[in-house]
What does this fold into?
Amino acid sequence: MATIIDGKKVAAEVLSECSEEIAELKSRGITPGLAVVLVGEDPASQVYVNSKVRKCAELGIHSEKIILSKQTTQEEVLETVARLNADPAIHGILVQSPPPPQIDEEAIVRAIDPAKDVDGFHPENVAKLALEDPTGFVPCTPAGCMRLLEAVGVETAGAEAVVVGRSMIVGKPMALLLMARGSDATVTVAHSRTKNLAEVCRRADIIVAAVGIPEFIRADFVKAGATVIDVGINRVEDQSTKRGYRLCGDVAYDEVSEKAGAITPVPGGVGPMTIALLMKNTIKAARAIG
Ligand code: NAD
It folds into this structure.
C-alpha cells in the first residue's frame, strides 16, 4: 500500500511559516493584501474564492472579495484590475477562472501588474519561471506539488517524471519546475494527443496527473513504487451524498494506491497546498512592494 501524502499537514506547515512572515511584515507596518475577483456565478469558483478569502482572514492578511455579475463587460473587469493595480493596500490580485464567455481572460491577466500577479499567469512571470528567475511568481498549484514532493523526501534529481496535461495553470509550469536546476528531473509532458499514454506513464518514477478527467490514471499506468501526485478535482454525481456529488481526482485512487509508493488523496492532497502557496505568494508580493 502506498504512503498517503497528507496535503493538509504539509499545507499547515506552509501556513505556519506564513504566520511568522506576516507577523514580521506587520511589525514593519506592512499588512499583506489580496484581492480576489469573481466574474459570474460558477459554483465551484464561488467555493474557491470563499476559501481563499477565509484563509486570508485566518492568517491576518487583508482581503477584498469583488463579485461582478455574469453580464459584466471586459471594460468593467479591466477597470477593476486597474483600480486594484493602483491600490497600495493590495499586493496580490487574482481573477478566478473560468470567467464568462464575453471575457477575454488572457487580456485580463496581461492587465494585472506583474508585481501583483500572485497566480503567476502573467507572461512576465511565465518567462521568469522559464528563466529560473526567483523574483517571479510561480503558479500556486504546481508550486504546491513541488513542496509535497519535498516534504515526503521524493528524490527528483535524475528521476523520470511524467506530467499528464499541458495547461498553463498546471502542466507546463509543473514540467518547468521539475526540470529546473535543483530539481533536475527528466521530464516528459503527455497530453491529449500522446500515443501509448499508459506505456509513457509506466516509465515514471513521479507522475503528476492534471487532466481533468475523473479516475483517468489507472493502476496499469503506474510503475510499482512510483510517486503519484493527483491534481485533479472533479465533481462526480453521487446521489448517496447530501450535495448530490462527490469530489474525485484524475487518478483511480483505490487501485493506484495498491501499486504506487506514495500518493496524494483527493480531497486533502494538492488542493490545500494551492491555497497555502497563494498565501505565500501574497506575502512575497507584499515584501517586494512594501
Ligand atoms: P485543462 O483542461 O486546462 O488541461 C487538461 C490537460 O489534460 C490538457 O493539457 C490536455 O491536453 C490533457 N488531456 C486531456 N485529455 C487527455 C487525455 N485523454 N490524455 C492525456 N491528456 C489529456 O485543465 P487544468 O486547468 O490543467 O486542470 C486539470 C485538473 O486539475 C482539473 O481536474 C482541475 O479541476 C484540477 N485543478 C486542481 C487544482 C488544485 O488546486 N488542486 C488547481 C487547478 C486545477
